[in-house]
């Protein structure tokens, strides 16, 4: 071995050690052990969409709620008494049965091979692209946690947090402002319960009768009709009033018109001096820039603290440890 080769291998070894577990995620992780994994995920999701036109956004949200609690380790899917699913701010997370159907199909095709954490990451990508959004190569090779982390669900941002607070939470897991704006753009599809935003219509900042001043007045009126005071707080309202079944960049045009549904959405555009404003404008004028940034941000989010190597396990049933 030459000096140069030795230095190179020492450097590589150090890089691997410093790179930690992320180093092992790879888009071709199942190339030999489950080559058809993507098309199986896709076909189950397409089937599921026949019964529930809203299934794609539901599935994408699960990956977010998984990754923000102790990393992308499928801890969200455990359904025991300490389940993360039962802790606030779950507000109607759904789609767990479809994840179970995907797992069943994969156990048939390649038993004991594909982790539940990878199923969440892959099905998020497939759901976005079937919804009309971008495609990206999902790094794979995550393993599943041996426990849930119910106490960690407080780390999932709330729609009522300030932009500074949300940005700080994202930063603490390696996601910058561009990632935050791009990932928030996922609210271009799906729905929210009235409960997630009615304070903006009736008692903003706890002032009785006050409407959020950043809310478009005509939109506020329309929302008051859909979510009347004292009405059903679980009624579902489109996150993107124009095209809530489609993954596109209309969300950012909505923000420019003060028509973002959640306070956390509108803050990205309406917070004076925030660096997110220019990013919203950029994505509003270029869907392709939004799509490219979204794919990159999803890969970064999917890289949060995965279990790899011999850590964790490959669950046989995503709802319980083996
Ligand atoms: C930036 C911080 C975020 C906040 C404060 C937030 C908050 C919320 C809230 C309150 C809802 C409505 C839930 C309900 O009422 O049922 C929602 C829906 C949703 N969120 Fe987020 N979210 C954030 C980021 C994300 C990210 C990063 C993703 C995924 C990459 C995501 C995916 C979704 C999806 C797809 C829905 C619609 C779910 C459905 O239609 O069932 N969110 N979000
Ligand atoms: C892969 O999966 C798809 C969808 O389930 C199926 O149509 C196709 O025949 C499968 N291919 C192989 C090689 O198993
Ligand atoms: C969400 O958590 C509440 C308790 O905070 C629980 O009653 C509800 O069933 C949970 N929702 C889901 C979908 O698990
Ligand atoms: C509004 O009032 C409730 C009850 O008094 C309190 O728990 C909550 O923190 C207040 N919210 C804000 C934004 O001040
Ligand atoms: C309110 O929404 C309408 C319709 O999108 C738009 O034309 C108007 O400019 C918006 N107002 C503000 C202040 O953004
Ligand atoms: C949790 O999952 C088990 C299978 O592991 C299932 O039998 C049970 O009904 C589930 N419980 C809930 C509350 O979903």
TrEMBL record:
Family according to the record: Belongs to the peroxidase family. Ascorbate peroxidase subfamily. Belongs to the peroxidase family. Classical plant (class III) peroxidase subfamily.
Determine if Chloroplast is one of this entry's keywords.
no
Could you tell me what this protein does? Removal of H(2)O(2), oxidation of toxic reductants, biosynthesis and degradation of lignin, suberization, auxin catabolism, response to environmental stresses such as wounding, pathogen attack and oxidative stress.
Q: Which residues form the Plant heme peroxidase family profile domain?
A: 24-322
Any Pfam family matching the protein: peroxidase
Indicate whether Lipid metabolism appears among the record's keywords. Answer: no
Known cofactor(s): Ca(2+); heme b
Sorted keywords for this record are:
Calcium, Disulfide bond, Heme, Hydrogen peroxide, Iron, Metal-binding, Oxidoreductase, Peroxidase, Secreted, Signal
Span of the signal peptide? 1-23
Q: Where in the cell is it found?
A: Secreted
Q: What is its EC number?
A: 1.11.1.7
Q: Kind of enzyme, top EC level?
A: oxidoreductase
Q: Which organism is it from?
A: Hibiscus sabdariffa
- This chain belongs to the protein called Peroxidase
- InterPro entries annotated for this entry? Haem_peroxidase, Haem_peroxidase_sf, Peroxidase_pln, Peroxidases_heam-ligand_BS, Secretory_peroxidase
Q: What is its main location?
A: secreted
| Cofactor binding summary note | Binds 2 calcium ions per subunit. Binds 1 heme b (iron(II)-protoporphyrin IX) group per subunit.
Q: What reaction gets catalysed by this protein?
A: 2 a phenolic donor + H2O2 = 2 a phenolic radical donor + 2 H2O
